[in-house]
Design goal:
GO terms for molecular function: hydrolase activity. This protein is α/β, with parallel strands linked by helices. It is built from seven helices and nine strands; from the N terminus they run αββαβααβαββαβββα. The chain has a single domain, classed as Alpha/Beta hydrolase fold, catalytic domain (Rossmann fold), CATH 3.40.50.1820. Strand 2, helix 2 and strand 3 form a beta-alpha-beta unit.
Length: 236
Amino acid sequence: MSQTFESIFKDNVKRMHYQVDGLSSDKSHIQVIIWPTFSGLTDFEKGVADRIASMGFSATALDLYGMGQNPVEMDEKKAKMGALLAEADPLHGLQKELTESACDAIHGKTIVHVGFCLGGRLALEAGLHLADSAGAASFHGLMSFFRAQSEEKANTKTKIMVLNGYEDPLVNESEAQEAKRYWAGLGMDFQYIDFASTMHSFMLPSADSPEHGSQYNPLTAQRGYQYLEHFLEEFV
């Protein structure tokens, strides 16, 4: 993809995030930012936002690519994802802008990032690199997130939760252990949960490619939402 990062993700890009206020006055100050898969903002992410709001928390599913700009073909999805993840500084700058636009006035809100597949990694990126982040939950996200250049530049106060399919071919054991060692070395609060008999994209009802290691798992998805609710309760 020959275009610059700015022309793909910033210049003249009009976005419409999907925002739902929390249904509980005691929890609505928790602002959950939902990072989408490499397909962009879809009904899946909107449904997740609705479900989180029903738990009492405020939620915003981000329009990552812009209105009418979601990639359709697999090659285009991979190309946009590659451009997005090519360099740390542009990525984190975009994440900061999108988080601020989603939260309106950031002050007084407790920001927790949640993401799926590509969004799982983006949640980890935001949690580690954006100073206003309180937590990050990754669902079947990759562990190849950018490490902070120094301990001082890492947001070590972020709580991390990773929900991973044990049979996910995109996350091998060495990558998982390396990520855990990294967080442990920073003294961060993290939890890493493996689900048995579970592949990549286990939260996505549309995932049905077991030959490629991607398969929706309704039981694991149900457990995933339970874990997420308990995780979010820690910030109340």
